[in-house]
Amino acid sequence: MLTTLSLRDFVIVESLNLDVRRGFTVLTGETGAGKSILIDALQLILGGRADASVVREGAERTHIVAEFQPSSEAKAWLVANELQTGEESLLIRRTVDTKGRSRAWVNGVVVTATQLRELGETLIDVHGQHAHQSLLKSTYQLQLLDDHVGTSSERVAVREAYFAWQKARKALDDATANADAIAEKAERLSWMIEDLETLSPKAGEWDELNADHRRLSHGVAIADGLNQIVNQLTDDPESVSSMLSSVHAKLTSLSRYDDKLSQMVETLSSGMDLVEEVARDASRYLDRSDLDGARFAEVDRRVSHYYELARKFRTEPESLHALLEDSRRQLKMLTGAKDVEGLKKAEGEARRQYDLVASQLTAVRNKAALALADAVTEQMQRLSMKGARLEIALVAQAPSANGSEHCEFLIAGHAGVQTRPLIKVASGGELARISLAIAVITAAAMPVPTLIFDEVDSGIGGATAEVVGQLLHRLGASRQVLCVTHLPQVAACGDNHWRVEKHFTGETTQSQLRVLNDAERIEEVARMLAGVSISDNTRAVAQEMLMIGHQEMTKE
Question: What DSSP line would sit under 445-457, residue for residue?
Fold first, then answer.
């Protein structure tokens, strides 16, 4: 639901800050005052095409900021696009400069116009003679029918069955379309596996082999060096250990005369222990090491085998283990794919399951289509469309994740004529009124929380206008509804009333919007009734219309 709207330097609006209420809000004003500016601003902030002409003359750019209480669909979209915050509200901001350059933000994060349009479809739907109509889209018509009757469980079953069928179908196609290629690939994989298994490479073995090869290839040097180190540290008469012992004895003797030398004695003792430890470790290494030539030859042959297979299969030695495992996996898949009869059976069973759940969805849709068409047709009679009727046709199509049919809304504008697709026969006024009738009937199922009707009362008057007002008010009980109107009968049914006024200051024109109180509503409805000259009698009629409208709303 829209909660606040702020405009700055938009067309002829210098500044506007508006708190938007729940229920049914009417927007009135004299012709040319700029009633549609508000709708244009909302369409722009929800992804409409940006144009430099929206910037007020003399300004550098226009700013539009709107705050919403997001619907569950909008929240899901925010989560999917990583734009959610910890706040309950949703903030959208858009700017357009004098060169037509546009920028947009959702919850403070820059987004594209495409993202705005996707988000906007979950927030506001505009119905009017000059608005792009969701109702003309076949996909929207089907969604509207499904939402109205509540087919969510059937649709989930159809979608899951469809994807299961497609998976089985692809497996069958892959197994039958390229049988020769599959056999050739399987043969190639078999000899690759056979060659690789002569080596039987293991994960991480290559690094260990290299370390062993490097160590063993220098075995003689390592053994000679360590023997020399042991001799120099401990075994020779003039070894490091002997010299340190002599120094230790001398220092111990001197420490008898000065206690400060005792710390040096302890430090030297630690050094002697370390020398002894290194000598012992070197001796143990020599006793336990496998620095013999036989072990080196074994490791060298295995390293050479790694290099040979790596060159043959054009890969790195360390990748041979992964190559073997991947080849085994591919061969197993290809071997399984040869069971064509089994795959045919699985595909056929998956198709039968899809047809079953799709037929169940079709039956529910057919029943709902008749009921919804009758209900909308009944409302159309009350909206100056006597004899008109709506039919909802479900036309068979190729199976899809949405079912086995698409939806067409067919309209007959008069009694005795054939129905034709809505997009081909409905005029702007008819389309707006049909949209209104459908919106009222399906209000409980419509996912969009805010509906805007732009002069849906065009071409009607009298009792029909009063019916339109009552229908819009009824719709406002479950949705936020904004309506641009020029009919006093519609204006009298509003929960809230805004008036757009145009002011001339010097050579500039500005448009302003005021929220009317009860007394101002009487004046405005009287103006809509009488025009320029407003008498006390006209005011009395206006007051009575507002009172009757309030009484009718109270009954509801």
Answer: T---SEEEEESTT
| pLDDT above 50 (res 131) | no
Tokens of 505: 């200051």
Q: Which of 120, 124, 126 is nearest to 106 (CA)?
A: 120
Taking residue 115's Cβ as centre, other Cβ atoms within 10 Å add up to 17
Grade residue 91 by pLDDT with cuts at 50, 70 and 90. very high
How do residues 231-285 score in pLDDT, each as one tens digit?
A: 788 877 777 788 888 888 888 888 888 888 888 888 888 888 888 888 787 777 7
User: Coil, strand, or helix at residue 442?
Assistant: coil
CA atoms within a 13 Å half-sphere pointing along the CA-CB vector of 36: 14
What is the model's pTM? 0.56
Burial tier of 352 (Cβ tally within 10 Å: 0-12, 13-18, 19+)? exposed
Token pair 């290809």 in the structure block, residue: 334
**Do 480 and 536 touch, CB atoms closer than 8 A?**
no
Query: Does the CA dihedral 426-432-433-439 come out positive or negative?
Result: positive
What token pair was written down for 178? 């390229």
Tokens 């996707």 sit on residue: 118
